[in-house]
Amino acid sequence: MLKFDCARNALRYLIREYKIQEIYIPYYLCSVIRHTVFEEGAKALFYHINDNFLPVDNFPKESYILYPDYFGICGKNVDELVKIYPKLIIDNAHAFYAEPKGFASFNSAKKFLPVNDGAYLWINGGRNNFKPDQERRKVFDRYHEKLSKTNLLKIELKEDSIPFCYPYLAPDIKSADALAYDLMSKGLTIYRYWDNLPQSYNEYKFYSRLVPIPL
């Protein structure tokens, strides 16, 4: 395990250490990670994801691929992808307690713990010894029990998953905005992930209609 001040520098290390010339990254992604790839001189090959957050197309098997465990709910997707792609790099910024898998994986402490920085990188596996925050999972489960019937996302968590938030996909933008406003009026901070995307992209629904409810 290697320690860094932030997740993007863990990725920066991988690009430099392994002389990565090009890497597949999703359109639906934090701009900081995207810009890190550009700054390091690697070629970004963008890919789309479907409604289950899985890549739409197949990749050349030996390619470097960055895949985020979106909102910490995509552990089953990770398990599926690591069986196919030996150079899969997993962005666990939203899945701090996830076990390291794939060619490499990195996480971010500040999204889960009361710290200003701190990120960890595992290469070729390893073990995450951080004690899982089970209370966070219980809060997630309570939200899911209450909202699953109207949430348009199909959420199937692994037993050991500790999500970052409860992602609620509303049927339309008006409903999403109303929910976000209601939650903010109760003192919760609601973000929209991430930058705006063209309306023709499937991912636009996530930007415009997905409300990440803090746990």
Provide tags for this entry.
215 residues; alpha/beta; 2 domains; five-stranded mixed sheet; two-stranded parallel sheet; globular
Beta content comes to 15-25%
Output the radius of gyration: 17 Å
CATH homologous superfamily caption of the largest domain? Type I PLP-dependent aspartate aminotransferase-like (Major domain)
- The share of residues in helices is 25-40%
Poorly predicted runs:
none
Give the overall form. Answer: globular
**How many helices in DSSP terms?**
6
Task: Provide the number of structural domains.
Answer: 2
Summarize model confidence as the mean pLDDT: 95
CATH class of the largest domain: Alpha Beta
Q: Write down how many β-strands occur, each being a DSSP E stretch of 2 or more residues.
A: 9
Query: In CATH terms, what is the fold-level topology of the largest domain?
Result: Aspartate Aminotransferase, domain 2
Summing up helix and strand content along with how strands pair, one would put the structural category as alpha/beta
Largest sheet composition: 5 strands, mixed
Order of helices and strands: EHEHEEHEEEHEHHE
The main sheet orders its strands as 1-7-6-5-4
CATH architecture of the largest domain: 3-Layer(aba) Sandwich
Distance between the termini: 27 Å
